[in-house]
Amino acid sequence: MSMLDGDIELLAARLAHAQRLGNMGWAEWNLRTGGIVWSEQVYAIFGRDPVQGPLPLANLAAYVEPADLAALDELLWTVTQGVEPVQAEFRVRRADGDVRNLRMVLEPLMAPGGPTGVHGVIQDITGRRRAERIMSESRRQLLEARVQAAEERHVMLALREAILPEPVGCLDLPHTRIAVRYVPAEKTASLGGDWFEAAALPDGRALLAIGDVSGHGLPAIAHMAQLRHALVGLTMTGEPPNQLLTWLNDLVLHRLADTTATAIIGHLDAATRVFTWGQAGNLAPVLVRDGVASRLAPPRGILLGATGEVPYQLATTRLRSGDLVLMFTDGLVERRTRDIDEGLDLVMTAACKLPGRDLDEGLDRLLEDIGGPNPEDDACLLAVGILGTC
């Protein structure tokens, strides 16, 4: 074998390899002699045994799907007019029954008397079209999911609003100003069971409470409603916060299966400025006094629904004129992108700016200072400002 023959064979091998990688082949039809030449890859594309030989142009229709015959007819008519290269896509059904998407580019071979033949490049684009269909379907499903998520968010927020309507502005109680916020998570699936309660009691004290039921979505919202409504009823007994927590713990243990919850429940005597409170696994309130923020020492208390064996204890905090107490659920400080201690530091720094300001507006500013709503968890805030004696 000469060096030239070796180069030709190497070039032919590389060309065949390129055709296989691109899943394309070439073909020529001599319109005068009837001679036809197909590359090896064209036989593979049509699923045709090379022993059977290539197909004349007119016989291609036997492979083409009926719905695509018009595209093939126009392609063949145009190329035989000898005008310019033309291309078309159509589907063929191979002998094994497999349907493939093909792109065919045909170019007339011209002579003075008119076209003498047709040169063609044929590519199997089935994989590409399948990927495009999958991508299109994925985009459609994503759009539907977004629409559905928006609708679900609207429903859940409306349900929460019905269960837990947020007061407009601050609550005015004797010698106190109280502001509350429910801050929904940015993600629909993360809407959960955070709640608050602030109300005057028949004996003149104020009930101040926040909590968070485990989980997200409608089940958490439903459990939140049961827990909060139970607290409102139990409060009428006049019992201290630790007893209220004990009863709520029994409710979670025996009626809300596979659920836990955190809570702070407190009674504020506006006349004496004594804040008596208990907690169940919740972050301790922040006290702002004389421009300095500190966390109150929490009494003993574990998650609601964890066990019925550990009693809840009480703490008593005597407040002063100008003090501010900030209660919040963990969604305010916990973020995937930062440590909880960093979140607490941000809250305490921002809380120092609350006294002496409009409390309702101050909570909005506090949320901005700590980085805005939590994308992945909702939160509740309850701020109490102690005023001077009337």
From TrEMBL:
Asked whether the UniProt record includes Lipid metabolism among its keywords, one would answer no
In this chain the PAC domain maps to 86-137
User: Which InterPro entries does the UniProt record give?
Assistant: Bact_Sigma-Reg, PAC, PAS, PAS-assoc_C, PAS-like_dom_sf, PAS_fold_3, PPM-type-like_dom_sf, PPM-type_phosphatase-like_dom
What's in the keyword line of the UniProt record? Hydrolase
Pfam (any one): PAS_3
Acyltransferase among keywords: no
NCBIfam families reported in the protein's UniProt record: sensory_box
Mind telling me what this protein is named?
SpoIIE family protein phosphatase
Naturally occurring in which organism (per UniProt): Nonomuraea ferruginea
